[in-house]
Amino acid sequence: MTMSRENRTKERLVVVGGDAAGMSAASQARRLKGPDALEIIAFERGHFSSYSACGIPYWVGGEVDDRDKLIARSPEEHRERGIDLRMRTEVTELDVDGGRVRSRDLDSGAEEWTSYDKLVVATGARPVRPSLPGIDAPGVHGVQTLDDGQALIDTLSRTEGRRAVVIGAGYIGVEMAEALINRGYEVTVVNRGKEPMATLDPDMGRLVHEAMEGMGITMVNDAEVTKILTGDDGRVRAVATEDGEYAADVVVLGIGVRPETTLAGAAGLPLGDHKGLLTDLAMRVRGHENIWAGGDCVEVLDLVSGSERHIALGTHANKHGQVIGSNVGGGYATFPGVVGTAVSKVCDLEIARTGLREKDAHRAGLRFEAVTIESTNSAGYYPKADLMTVKMLAELRTGRLLGVQIVGREGAAKRVDIAAVALTAGMTVEQMTALDLGYAPPFSPVWDPILVAARKAVTAVRKTAQ
Fold this sequence. Notes:
FAD/NAD(P)-binding domain, oxidoreductase, FAD/NAD-linked_Rdtase_dimer_sf, 5-stranded parallel beta sheet, oxidoreductase activity, alpha/beta, 12 helices, Enolase-like, domain 1
């Protein structure tokens, strides 16, 4: 069945993807335009809408005790607000020239075409799932959606053994290692890099490595997984590398994600070097007046290096949705770009970064100085003061801040927000030393660790300039 434009009396917005970016866009458009002016149809292939994918590791680990706490707005709530949200319905084709999408009901198998005047592509990202023998065996899990999280929890509840292997040591990998530790598993992390957290420089990643081993997690770095071994029952029993085997009753893939742009690519929409959709500042797909895209399926401008990056974060997705909804609804908004801020934790270790790593700065052709300092999260004499390490990059000659990485205990991670603001404002490290930051002994030394690093960076830049 095809719904033609001629049979409609009002404008129609079609949204592909029912999570953060897509439903934020739909909700914002609905706030600006009522149901008499704009019809909104949204398609979501999963069982859930508008949920926090970032919270899944904490639900798996038991820190969040109820799956529904991760859901910001249910399908029923969206429908009550005048959005026709069709769950368990997968869009299988985008007909850009014809202004329509083909969808399939995953329960009944029924297919139909739906026309649109304006289209939002918010198809998210998919977990990297390497083509390895045994990768699809029972007991091997990727974790990207609530459905994925539920499947993993179901497996953990049925599994008698207590050995888990996490493949990959990025954000998802270390967060899932913590979740499994919290559930009483013996955890091994197999990582192809020399150190965990490739979003950090190796010297900072080494601090994460040492801390994870101190928590009882077995780290296997510089190791390439070659296959997943299975038992007589077909279930996973071990993960194999070129140098050994690691017993596993459950395997979690934490290798990272890629933009889910299969439909967009097939429809001829423009993709960048990372295979994410390319948009303008209004989040409109380049070269297409009535198509917008946002969330984990797009590439964004890095304000520090000036290049396009793919960063899968719920914060960006929600902002993209607000921008798209404003523009679709007749308003005006832009998304200027990002500085690459991210925080994570594994048990009580906090990890943060913003801006460029050393290799990013080299790739961008920048000359810089890198400094590292150790400080504490509170006054040294205050009870339970904990160490943190701060690394800072500053551009030669100009002294412009280029990036900050932090590894430490309580109070370490959110300090990166100071640096994120400084990066966005284009501040120099010398300007940062004069920042009027909050101080009291329970929260900071007299000189905050960020400012200590900035002072050292100023000295390094001046010395090099002489």
